[in-house]
Structure formats: structure tokens, C-alpha cells
Specification:
With about 500 residues, the chain is an alpha/beta fold. It folds into two domains: about 120 residues, Golgi alpha-mannosidase II (Immunoglobulin-like); about 375 residues, Glycosidases (TIM Barrel, Alpha-Beta Barrel). Helices cover about 25% and strands about 25% of the residues. It has ten helices and 25 strands. It binds alpha-L-arabinofuranose. Alpha-L-arabinofuranose binds next to loops.
Amino acid sequence: RTARFALDPAFTIGEADPRLFGSFVEHLGRCVYTGVFEPDHPSADAEGLRTDVLELVRELGVTVVRYPGGNFVSGYDWEDSVGPAEERPRRLDLAWRSTESNRFGLSEFIGFVRKIGPRAEPMMALNLGTRGVAEALALQEYANHPSGTARSEQRIAHGDKDPFGIGLWCLGNEMDGPWQTGHKTAGEYGRLAAETARAMRQIDPGLELVACGSSGQGMATFAEWEATVLAETYDLVDHISLHAYYEETDGDRDSFLASAVDMESFIENVVATCDHVGARLKSTKRINLSFDEWNVWYQSRPNPHPVEDWQEAPRLLEDVYTVTDAVVFGSLLIALLRHADRVAVACLAQLVNVIAPIMTEPGGPAWRQTTFHPFAQASAHGRGQVLDVRVDSPTYTTRKYGEADLLHATAVRAEDGSVTVFAVNRSRTEALPLEAALGRTGLTAVLEHSALADADPDAVNSLHDPDRVTPHPVEGTVLRDGTLTAVLEPLSWNMIRLV
Ligand code: AHR
């Protein structure tokens, strides 16, 4: 059966915030050390940043970088990471049972973001696990105040004359999780987040602040957590965070392919909870969503690399992504775009080596994982008005989500009127014919149809075969008399550009 939808420029979801294409650098495994930062690498610049990685980050189209954690941040003393590198203390990182040298710190991070390009923005997470209001204010003053105070002069003495201008802040990380250092109840966290936000706004009312939501829709405290935290913070924060990771379990690939069903319901449930609190408070303000950790992550698989406690930059979470993973990943991107009216920020977790689209070898090359490609395409062409795409699709049966559509799709209309359709065919065996009625869009031609699909759904890119999986052009996609017809290969991520 054919999958169908209609596009009409008058029916939109909302403007896709460029910050939907954010990512995340945590002091975890080799994300920082031998990932973005490796002073001895042949490609390293004067600051020790790997320029081969920087080039790939630019190609990926990353707009926001969240830092420095993650679980790491909840035991982090930011003061350890500034000043002369050789004087910085080595510390235990309780979250990942590693040793943190602090060789890479706040100044190096800001330098990295600036080198990505003028439109990339830092997103700084605060430690609200072991620390609180005073330390958040000290960091804000150090980072953002121009000059003339103890902290700002300290930054200048450390070599950073210009303030860092960090506008986007996370009030802690996953504070609902019992694994989090300094884990709190919703009431305890809500009060701390509110007081931190209030104090930070006394310095700068214009900051954008993210309160911690749940670390997953499956948490026992989900929704109640959001409601309690927002009851304390509603007027003081701009966004609430969501985190979600998906993996194939028990060989149930069909459910895994429909992971975005869960992601969309998570988003919609958080929106409902935010609006419920807003209604209770009789507020006209709307809280938006910061989906600041999302990805495919094989959490239940044992680490294939030998790792000792308190090692520096051990090989942790170095998942190798297949074609199937990239299709699910693309579907998660589609889910985010389909909710662009409320998801204002999203961060792919993470950027390099750790559940990442970019992999590196210490002293060796950097390469693109399969998941690199859907992200790069979506970031390059998913900017503009997201159109309301309601699919009429054949379905298939999944154990976790019941009947799920085989077609998952969204479409984004750029300022020049061109439209890009992103679509996933979830069928593992059947090609999916697609027909889209484009009547009132004024579109007349197919510029490009590219697909990521492979005869081997488990194919991966690796050090020895870094470009085994890349998107390929698809022939035969036509736009005639206002109707787009295409065939989506089995298990495929597709980008169709129309003008
Ligand atoms: O991204 C890996 C970890 O996942 C982060 O440190 C934490 O916030 C989440 O549980």
C-alpha cells in the first residue's frame, strides 16, 4: 500500500529553532581528551584542539554545545578548570569513576565553541548536586561580567579579556535520578532551582534557564516531578529538560524502529504537564522544552574495552552505529522537528567518541558514524517553517507500541519557499511507495532525493572502512502536476528536496 500526505504552506507547526541541532560535550570517556582536545595530535592547533574534529563538527552543523555534563557536572567544581593549566588540580570524577585532569576547562571549551563558527552557542550546565546558588553566581560573574569585579578580573588575568557571554544555562542535570551525585526530591530540587534562577536573574534578567525535567519518561516520578519543579520555578525558567535514549532489546527490532513513537509521546506529555501547571497558576507564559540529551545508546551492552577505575579518559560508551541505528536516529530527528512549536533546544548526546556521530583514534584519524549523515542533512536543510504533515500510512505491529506507521515524516519550508521532506521507512523488508499532494506549495521540481539504506542493515563505518555507509542518490522520484511520487527503500532514512 502507498503512504500519503499533503503539504500546504498555510498549515504549519512552527519555526524550527536552529538550536534543535545542538550537541553535547561531557567530561566522559574520550569525548574531551583525544576527542575534541589532543595537544599532541598532528592536526592539533595552538590551543590543543583537533582541527580534523573541528572540521567534522562544522560539517555536522552543530549550533549549540552543552557542557560539561551530564552526570559529571553534579560533582564538578568549575574553579578547578580555570587558570594556568599546569596548576589545575586532578580530581576524582565520581560519575564515571575516572580521573579528571582539568587540562581542558571553561576557557578551552569557549574557544572550541567559538571555533565551530559564529553561530554556535555554548550551553553551560551548573552543578546543583554538590553545590548551589553561591557557586552558580560566582561562575556567572567569572564567565559573563565584563570587568571590574574580583571574578571578572580573575578571568581577564587568566587570559580571557572578553566575557564568554553564556546565555543558556542548565540548572543541574538529571536531579531526579538516584544515580546523580546529590540527587534530590522534586520539592528539594524545585526550591534550589528557583533560588538559583532568581539569583542569576539579579545579575542578568535576560538569561535563558532550563530546569531539570525527568531523565526519562519511564522514571517512576515522571510528570509528578515536572509538575512539582515547575510549581516552584514557572516564572523563573524558560525551558524544562527531557532526556531519552533508545536501544534494541531482546532482538525486538520492530519496536526499536518505532522508538520515535515513545519520543513523541514523551514530548506531548511534558507539554501537557507544563501547560497544566501554567493553567493552575493562571499564567499566560509558556514553558518550552529543551530536549538536551537524546540518542541511540546501547546501555545494556557490556563495555567491550577494558577499563580500570580512576583511569584518565577511558574508552567508555563508544557505541558503533549501524544503518538501522541511523534510521532510528533519523526518526528521532523527525520527532523533534514535528514538535518544533514547543521544542526550542535539542542536544544530541554526545559529540565525539561517546555515543557520538564522530569517532577518533588517539594520534590517528577522525571519521563519521552512520548517524552523522541524518544529523548533517537535517541541520543543513531543516531550517524554516515546519509544515503540518499528517500521514496516511500502512502500519506494522510492534511489541512495545502496538500498530505503528511504516512512514514517519516531516517537511520544512525554507525562507525561499523550497521544501525539504525528511522521511523514514520503518519496514525491514518492503519498499514503501510514497505519494504527496503538494497542491498549494507552488513547488515544481525535485532537486535531490538522497537515502541512507543498505543491503546489510548492520553495516557500520569504522577506522578501517570510514565511509562504508554514506547517503546515496535515489533515482525516479518525480514531482508532476502537484504530486510527488517516490519509493522509499526498506529500512531507510530519506531527504527529498523540492523547489
Ligand atoms: O550522556 C550520557 C549520560 O546520560 C549523561 O551523563 C547523563 O546525563 C545521562 O544519564
